[in-house]
Amino acid sequence: MMREYIIQIKDLRKHFPVKNVWGTDIALVKALDGVDLNIEEGKTFGIVGESGCGKTTLMRTLLRLVEPTSGSVLLSDQFLGLKGRNLENLTNEELRLFRRQIGVVFQDPMGALNPRMLIKDIVGEPLVIHGKTENFRSKVIELLNNVGLGEEHLYRYPHEFSGGQRQRIVIARALALDPKVLVLDEPTSALDVSVQAQILNLLNDLQVKFNLTYVFISHDLSVIEYMCDRLAVMYLGKVVEEADTEELFFNPQHPYTKALLSATPQFFAPDKKRIMILGDVPSPITYLDESKAKLATEITVQERLEIKALEGKEIDYIVRSSLNEVFPLKKVSNEHYARVK
User: Fold this and answer.
1) Cα–Cα 20 to 30 A to 98, which of 9, 24, 146, 295?
2) Which residues make beta-bridge pairs with 239?
3) CB pairs under 8 A, 24+ apart, for 50-55?
4) What are 64-93's pLDDT values in tens digits?
5) Residues 239, 253: contact at Cβ < 8 Å?
6) By CB neighbour count within 10 A (0-12 exposed, 13-18 middle, 19+ buried), where does 273 fall?
7) What does the longest C-alpha to C-alpha distance in the chain come to?
8) Closest CA to 252 of 126, 337, 134
9) What is the pLDDT of residues 163-217, one digit of tens each?
10) Cβ distance 289 to 26 under 8 Å?
C-alpha cells in the first residue's frame, strides 16, 4: 500500500556559526547535518535521541522559527493552498496560512502559558490572531471540552491548574485553528507518570477524532513505543536509524539504537543485558580549519580507563569514538534504514 506523506524533509541542514573574539567565523555547530524524513499522513512519527542531537532544532526548522542552511521541507496538498511548496520559499502570507495548519505542544506547560491571561484568552488567542472571532466563546468552550475541561474553567488563571490540566489547555490552544499536524515536543516529560498516561490517551483519541498527524519528540522510549507508528533515531545532527516502531524495537541495527533500547526498563525482561555508552558526548562543532575539523574516531584515554574498569564485569558496552565514524544511510530491510557498514 502506497504511503501518503504530508511533509517530506530532504537533506535538511542547519549550521550555527561560532565566532572568535574578533567576530570571525572559526567553526560551525552542525545542529542538523543532512536529515531526510517522510512524515506519513494521519500517523505519529517519533524522533528520539539524547540532548544535543538536534531534535528541537529540527522542530524549530520544521516550523520555520529558524531558517535552514540548506535542504527543503516539502508540503503535500493536505496543506490547503500550499500543494508541493517548499517551506523555505513561502511568502509571509503563505507562511501565515501554513501556521494555521500546524500546532505545537511544548514540553513545559507552565512556561507555555501566560500567567496573566485567563484561560478563555489563552485558548482563544489563535482565533483572535487569525481573525476567527465569530462565536468566540462557544468555540473556546468546545476546545476545552475536547480535552476534558469545561466552561467552568474559562475565567481561571494557569496557576490554578495542575500540570496535567495545564497541558490539556496547551493542547486545546494547539487545536484552535483545526490544524493538520501537531508537533509535540516532549509533551509528557514534565508530568507525573499517571498523568502522562492520561495525556497520551487523550492525544490518541484526538488523533482519531480529527485525523491529525503527529511529530512526536521524546527521550522516553517507552512513550515512543506506545505512541508512534514510525521512528527516527538521531545522533549528532544525523538520523542514524529509521524504521516502523515495531520493526526498530524488535530488530535494531545501529549500535547507538541498541544502547538506547537497552536502557529502557522492561518489567517482562528484568535480566536483559544493558549496553553502556562510554566516553563523553562529542562536540557538534566542526572547525573551519581542516587541521582541527576531524571528529575523533580513535579510542580516547578516558574511554580506555572506562573499558578497563568494566573488565570482568560481563557488561556490554560501546564507545563514543566508534559512533563518530559516519556511514551512509542504507536500506536494511523493507522501510528500515540504518547507518551501518
Assistant:
1) 146
2) 234
3) 50/219, 50/235, 50/281, 51/219, 52/236, 52/281, 52/284, 53/234, 53/235, 53/236, 53/237, 54/14, 54/234, 54/236, 54/237, 54/238, 55/217, 55/234
4) 999 999 999 999 888 877 778 899 899 999
5) no
6) exposed
7) 71
8) 337
9) 899 999 999 999 999 999 999 998 888 788 888 899 999 999 999 999 999 999 9
10) yes
Record the cell numbers describing residue 79, joined without a space: 496543506
Distance CA 150, CA 76 (A): 35
Cell numbers 526498563: residue = 265
Closest residue by Cα to residue 69 from 5, 20, 25: 25
In terms of DSSP bridges, do strands 213-218 and 285-287 run parallel, antiparallel, or are they unpaired? unpaired
The answer to whether 65 and 106 have CB atoms below 8 angstroms apart is no
Cell numbers at 239, concatenated: 538520523
